[in-house]
Amino acid sequence: MHCNVVVVGSGAAGLMAAIEAADLGASVIVLESEPHTGGSTRLSGAYVALCETPLQPGTRDELYEDLIHSHHEDCQESLSRLYVDEAAATYSKLETLGVRFVRTFRFAHMSRPWAHELSGDEMSGGAEIVTQLEAAARARGVRLETEARVRRLVIANGEVTGVAFEWHGMAQQCTASNGVILATGGFTRNQDLIHNFGPPGAEGILPLTGQGSRGDGLLMGMSAGAGISYMTMGVAPTAPSEPETGKGAMVLYAGAIALNRDGKRFCRESELYIDTCWALLKQPGAVCAQIYDSRMKGEYEQTMMGKVLTGFREFQAPTLSALAMQLSREGFDAKGVVSGVERYNGQLGSGGDTDFERRHAVGDSGPLLPISKSPFHAVICRAGTTHFNGGLTVDTAMNVRDVYGNPIAGLYAAGEVTGGFHGAGYMSGTFVGMALIFGRVAGRSAALA
Description:
Oligomer: single chain
Strand content: 15-25%
Distance between the termini: 20 Å
């Protein structure tokens, strides 16, 4: 095989890179290791944090300040600036590709509702994005091959000139005259990498990601001498998940509370889910139960998260006491659960949550309601992850840099395989956002190389 640009991976980053490169006249081949396209993006709610759009006219400087704050002032700031500078143009590009956002939300660390949401009427947000992007890529003549797992970069005279991959059991090579773009996702399903880079116990974090998140692109980049950024602090949980099914559950954002095995709350549930998960890891058995009533369940099911994060094992009972008895068979203190809910309800009825000063269902949005309308529900959760933050070092052209800071000729990267943008923190809507925005930049850079 031969082309101008090879893209490894078919999530939002890879497909957006392929479209951008094709629009600039490059011939493009996308190689996807799994039987289906879409990667982890397909599984996501696909909130996208953007500025200066018809739905959110807030400025790039405002979004930039929020990004730096959410990253705990510890990140590669040039990438944050690139993100906001490219945000409006990316929104416009998505519209031309048939991706339609309908509303915005304000999550933790946001001074404005930056997070753009799709309707979710026909499919979940992430599935809608990759479906539209795949159709657009194919319409531009991009060749997409599934079950084509890239194993090695081909390097000649210090320049990346192609890839070696396995395709239907056969060894193949593809040369690329302009360059290779790594868009392989993260390494949430690679226990060796998690053990090497993560803190003790990180191997127990449940992955809520695509099956291809094995770190292939990270390893290939490192084999070419690439530097890595924020790997250790980037290995962190992000979302509560039900351990039996591995499904994420975020009813907290519809007003649920989180109780540990003793029936005690341990966090402000409206905060960013990574903070909830860090607190969860410190609880007895590193387990909690999200407790909610029928109103919250109905509200959750109407949100994009509720449409995507489904299928978890859910407990239901006509009374709170009966629900607590069910949880007692799972290792929870029944009296403690009842007491924990009653304490929370009592505080809401007498001025507000005094234990953790929760004021809204999520971030600064949504009223708090007592857990009082039958039937009552619960889902048991451990700390899961939708992504890791660390990855290959890149510059603002998405050119991968080596361990000395020099560009590696012919090698680009975008999406979760890269590091530096999020640094030490995270804002909701910026993982799919960075995949789309930086995918465009990578495709542009490779096509014009």
